[in-house]
């Protein structure tokens, strides 16, 4: 069983929802306090400080996925371009998190688009990265925990490349261990499939 039942029951008894993420990419436990009907924290428990898994997105304006639209895509299955999000009044959040409900437990993920600001220990918490294509995207990545090699990083972290259908794919994507997610320019009802493929891949 992917879940540690005893640990899960212990957190639940303490009023904390927890989700255990595992697979060959490592095991990370994230937790957040349950809330009572009034919106307050049940029992006054503090958030379990066990490390929130990190999802890295490109900072480049030409990337289809970025800090402005990744939350809506991965939480609601709705894709909007950066330009559409700006028109909606969206602004880059300094502390961006994504919540994903799985088996009744809330998994929380931190979104980062400035890897140069991450501490060395933060890299152990990276579970997913959205690849833009050019290798210069990784110039600020601390790969010391992965033998200094990008190929080792992709072997431990789920990597994704988002593209529109019928477009030319960068040659580098074919060389890396990357999951390609294809968007339809007009069929927005297909976006939910992209969201599901992302979370299914992360659980593998």
TrEMBL record:
Pfam families: CDC73_C. InterPro entries: Cdc73/Parafibromin (IPR007852), CDC73_C (IPR031336), CDC73_C_sf (IPR038103). GO terms for cellular component: Cdc73/Paf1 complex. GO terms for molecular function: RNA polymerase II complex binding. It is found in: Nucleus. GO terms for biological process: positive regulation of transcription elongation by RNA polymerase II; transcription elongation by RNA polymerase II. Its main location: nucleus. Keywords: Nucleus, Transcription. Residues 53-202 form the Cell division control protein 73 C-terminal domain. It comes from the Eukaryota. Belongs to the CDC73 family. This is Cell division control protein 73 C-terminal domain-containing protein. It comes from Hemiselmis tepida.
């Amino acid at each position: 069983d992917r879940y540690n039942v005893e640990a899960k029951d212990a957190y639940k008894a303490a009023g904390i929802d927890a989700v255990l993420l595992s697979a060959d990419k490592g095991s990370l436990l994230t937790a957040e306090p349950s809330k009572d009907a009034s919106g307050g924290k049940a029992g006054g428990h503090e958030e379990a400080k066990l490390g929130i898994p990190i999802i890295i997105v490109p900072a480049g304006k030409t990337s289809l996925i970025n800090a402005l639209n990744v939350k809506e895509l991965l939480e609601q299955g709705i894709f909007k371009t950066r330009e559409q999000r700006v028109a909606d009044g969206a602004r880059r959040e300094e502390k961006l998190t994504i919540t994903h409900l799985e088996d009744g437990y809330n998994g929380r993920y931190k979104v980062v688009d400035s890897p140069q600001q991450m501490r060395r220990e933060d890299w152990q918490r990276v579970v997913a990265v959205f690849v833009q294509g050019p290798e210069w995207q990784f110039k600020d990545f601390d790969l010391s925990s992965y033998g200094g090699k990008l190929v080792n990083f992709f072997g431990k972290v789920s990597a994704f490349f988002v593209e529109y259908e019928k477009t030319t794919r960068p040659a580098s994507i074919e060389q890396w261990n990357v999951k390609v997610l294809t968007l339809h320019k007009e069929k927005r009802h297909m976006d939910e499939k992209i969201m599901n493929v992302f979370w299914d891949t992360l659980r593998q």
